[in-house]
Amino acid sequence: MTRWNIDRRAFLKAAGALGAGLAMKPGFAWSADGDTLRIRMEGDLQTLDPAFMIGGIEDVMMRGIYVSLNRLGDLRQGSPWSLWGAEKLELTEPKTIAFTLIDGLKWSNGLGRVTAEDVKFSYERIADPKLSSPWAYQFEKLDRVEVVDARSGIIHLKDPYQPIFVTSLPYYGGHIISRAGTERAGGKFTTEPPATCGPYLFTDWQQKQKVTLTANPDWPGQKPDFGKVEIYIVADDQAAQLAYEADAFDYTKIAISATKAVKASPPANTAVIEAQSTRYVWLTINMLSPRLKDLKVRQAVQYGVDVSQILTGVYDDLTKRSTGVVQPGTKFARASNLIAAPDYEKSAALLSEAGVSDLSLTLTVMNDSIRTATAQIIQASLEQAGIKVEIQPYDEAAFWGVGDKTQGDGYKNIDLALMDFAGGVDPSENLVWFRPDQIGAYNWSGFDSPEFEASYQQLVAESEQAKRVALSNRMEDLMEQSGGFVFICHQPLVVIHKTSFEPVIYPDGHPNPVLFKKKA
């Protein structure tokens, strides 16, 4: 078997050129005062409407400019939840949650106080099927929000929903928006929120370069340690590392391949964080594609991918193969994959049984170095199985449009897609994206299993741990048996940051700069 080697020197050379280009951008600052926090994210802003956010930079921004009832702590401490915009938040009955907002919450743009009516509007809006929010699942068990008074209310659920305090309330769907402002804007908005209420104000956006947040003087809660947050947009991890070393910013994720070298010789005044993230990586095999409708053909692809080469060539053997989308090392992780190793003879035999020869497929991928390197290894591995693969790279914004059914039927013609999602604390948060209602949204494999959907409903209602483990394991069996998935790994998270502060990182791997703490 031929091993696939990644030329790190070539990657570093390309990244260096990109880093040098970044230095010449007019909006790229090379120094900042002690009250400014400079962090790096990979993709640009697309929408600040919580119902339609994509992730990444929007995720980080919305934790600064909106308020939620509770929040999550650092992933290194198990991501415990605590009160944030609420002074009271408690499960009073299996299907009722009482809350009281902290006093003094105030909307920007002169829209008055934040009230329980805004909470009701925000939650019921995102749960409304007519809105078609991809995050509606977070409140699909919502019956209604009862307004008790200006600051208090009761969340009524249709059925018990175990993960609500860690998957709904502190995350995207749980961000509270202004009812008056949103209705004035016509019910939806994109990059210009009609009103915000959070520790920060959104004050500047230089497209594809930088977003600036400044401290909100009207915020009544815990004040952030930094008066300004500058979020720099750098797609490539290698380029970001070089820019950090040139003092372009104070916090960035770096390439996995750089981990050992950076740990051995970190930049001056730099701390290195190495943690297990919940971001899971897999190869989607689209059963809606005319070329992949036959289960045997999809299984041929599954048997033709050598995941061990990816783990060595891309991740420097710093992580192990995943047994599913649920985070390894947790009580919910599946014991093993059903297809554990590549078998090129088996792959060829399956193609022969399906009557398929000269199979050519397209692999859709984001065009950064890590994902491109992974795609190249998949391409080389499948070639040994007799399957030709053409890699089709996209930038982040264009990539997510490929599988969007609102853009037409193109999602049905995807063959293969290299995907990675930021996971959550509860297994349901990782499994939810493969339900039937996510086809043409985030379920790009076209996976449609009634048993999977029934198991999901049981999973979110069940309180007994052993039963929840069995349900989540069975759901991952169904995914693999469909031929629609090759589970690769959960990415290790490697971050470098200045030693002058201590960061807080959410379980999705994204920083929460609101909670960053300066050191004395």
From TrEMBL:
Name listed for the protein in its UniProt record: Putative Dipeptide ABC transporter, periplasmic dipeptide-binding protein
GO MF term (any one): peptide transmembrane transporter activity
Gene3D superfamilies listed in its UniProt record: Dipeptide-binding Protein, Domain 1 (3.90.76.10), Dipeptide-binding Protein, Domain 3 (3.10.105.10), Periplasmic binding protein-like II (3.40.190.10)
Keyword Transport annotated: yes
GO CC, alphabetical: ATP-binding cassette (ABC) transporter complex; outer membrane-bounded periplasmic space
Residue ranges occupied by any Solute-binding protein family domain in the UniProt entry: 92-430
GO biological process, one term: peptide transport
SUPFAM superfamilies named in the record: Periplasmic binding protein-like II
Family per similarity comment: Belongs to the bacterial solute-binding protein 5 family.
PROSITE patterns: TAT (PS51318)
Localisation: Periplasm
Coiled-coil segments: none
InterPro entries: Peptide/Ni-bd, SBP_5, SBP_5_dom, TAT_signal, TAT_signal_bac_arc
Organism annotation: Mesorhizobium metallidurans STM 2683
Keywords: Signal, Transport
UniProt-listed NCBIfam families: TAT_signal_seq
